[in-house]
Amino acid sequence: MAKKFLSLLKAKNEKPLECPPVTIGFLGDSVTNGCFEVLPANTDHGTDGYDVVFDQEHSYSSYLYRTFISLYPNAQINIVNAGISGDDAPTGLSRMDRDLMSFHPDLVIVCYGLNDAYNGPDKLDTYKNALTGILRRILASGAEAILMTPQPVCTRVHGRLDSAELRKLAVELAELFHSGVFDRYMNAAREAAAEAGVPVCDCYAKWMRMYESGVDITDHLVNYLNHPTRQMHWLFANSLADTIFMND
Q1: Residue 199 has pLDDT above 60, yes or no
Q2: Which of 5, 51, 146, 245 is the most buried (most CB within 10 A)?
Q3: Which CATH superfamily is domain 3-245 in?
């Protein structure tokens, strides 16, 4: 599904002195950014808001990088992680030239939906149109693109959430899940990819199969809201590798 990218990797690995390095770009929100736990922010005046733990070393972009440098040990592979916590698809479209395309990536992984879906069903078209714009801009540059769907948000209010504010957020996110709004956003993402002719790495579908098979997926969100655990970032990385190596 990423024939040009694999061809460039093969050439760089075989003739490292003669071929240019290969660049993988990532565009998305907090999960792409490498955000994990959400902790109370302690100051001299007591608790004041929340701090998010950033750990890009254990994000799916880093895991995918490790996978490819082990497979192509002679190739120089560059990573540009343009994920930003709190971002959504329309903002991603507006900033992608500055934050990502200026680095001339050969392959771009796009993952949005967690923050977009929080806007409710009225913003579905806005989300889909922004994703379509992102994918078309990538393809117009000559790069290849993969649209990756995110994992679901929490399905319940986890007992370990001891903050009234975070518990309120969990109620709202679980409603997005159970009402089918999040499903509608993921369907819109698949439609955008199909219209742009871009492959989908459907991690959302994998998480949903786990959920339907009895897995408590909320337990696998490190903040019990919308950030996967470090172990589950391997699922994203391995799924992306499968998509990249998949035959048409």
Answers
A1: yes
A2: 146
A3: SGNH hydrolase (3.40.50.1110)
